[in-house]
C-alpha cells in the first residue's frame, strides 16, 4: 500500500479529533476576551457540528466522483485557513462564521480519511490500518484537554487554533505526495434536491439535539418533528430519484446499515456517559479538571491498547462476535459507573469502569469501521465513509441530549445511557459471522493494490 496513505488518514482524523477537545479549553478565555454571551459561545461548537454533520455524505459522494485526494487536500487546506482566521478574529461573530467554515472543510476531509484506507490497503491489511487509525484518534482525544490547557495557559485561547495551521500544512504536503488524483468510478449525476434534503434534515436534527440539554425535549419537540418530516420527504424522494444521494447499493447493504446503527448507539452511550461523569466529578464531588482527566485516563489507554486487540479478535472471531463483546463491555462500563462507588466516588471503581468503556468502544469502532469500509460496494468508499462519520458526529449529540435531559440528573441518566448502548446488540447481531481471512504471506502480496490508491475505487 502507499506508505503515506495511513499517516495521512490517521493524521487528518487526529487533526479533527484534537480540534474538538482543545476547543473546550479555549472557550472560557474566548468569552472573557471577546465579551460574548453563553449562547454565542455555544454556537462556536454548534455551528461547526451542524455544518460538518450536514455535509459529510455529500462530501463522500463528491470524493467518489471527483477523487478523494482532491477532496482531502481541499478540506485540509481550508481547515487550516479557517483556523488561522479564527486566530485573527476580532469578534465572536467572526469566530462563529469561521467555525462554520471549518465544519464545511472538516466535512470535505473526513470521508477521504477512510476512503484512502479502502483504496490503498490490501484487504488483509485493512483491519490493521483501521486499528491504527482508531488508536490515533483515541490518543488525540485523550491528549486534547492537556494540550489545550498548556496552549491556553502559555499563549492564550487563540493558540489552540494557530496550532492547526502547521499541522494542516504538513498534511497537505503529504497528501500531495500520494499518487496523482484521477476521477472516481461513481459516474452517476449528483442529485441536488436529494443532497439539499439530506443536508437540511441532518442540520435540523443535530441543531435540535444540541439544544436539548438547555431547553429539554419538550421545547425542542417541534424542531425534532421538523427533522423527522424532512427525513420522510427525503426517503420518498430517494425512492423515485434516478441518482439518489445515498446510492442504492449502499442503502441495500445490510452490513453497512447495521454498522452505522451500531456506531450511532455506541457513540451515544459513551459520550453521554462521559458528559454525565464529568459533571458528577467536578460539580458534585468537587474534583478538579486535571484530576478528572486522570481518573478517566484508563478509557484512553484501553482504546489505544484495545484497537489492535480488537483487530486480532475480528480476524479470529468475526465481526458479529467481536461487536457483541464490544457492546457488552461498553454496557458493563456504563453500569459500573452507575453502581455503588461509581461515578467517581470510588477511584478504583471508576478506573475499572473507564477501562471497560475504552475496551468496548475500541472493539465496536474497529469492527464497525472495518465492516463499513470493507463491505462498501465498489466505487462508493466515500459515500460509506461519509455515512460512517455522520453516525459518529450525531451519536455524541444524541448521548449528551439523553444525559442532560433524562429528567433524573446527569448521574441518574446512566441507566438510560446503558440501555441506549445496549440497543447496539441488535445491529451487532446482524453483522456477518464469518471471521476475516488471515494476512497473506509477504510473497503473496502484490503491487496492484498500491496502484489503486487515490481518486477512484
Automatic annotation (TrEMBL):
It comes from the Bacteria. Keywords: Antibiotic resistance, Membrane, Transmembrane, Transmembrane helix. GO terms for cellular component: plasma membrane. GO terms for biological process: response to antibiotic. It holds the Pfam family MFS_1. GO terms for molecular function: transmembrane transporter activity. CDD domains: MFS_MMR_MDR_like. Residues 5-436 form the Major facilitator superfamily (MFS) profile domain. InterPro entries: MFS, MFS_dom, MFS_trans_sf. It is a multi-pass membrane protein. It is found in: Cell membrane. Its main location: membrane. The chain crosses the membrane at residues 42-60, 72-94, 129-147, 159-178, 190-210, 256-281, 293-310, 322-339, 345-366. This is MFS transporter.
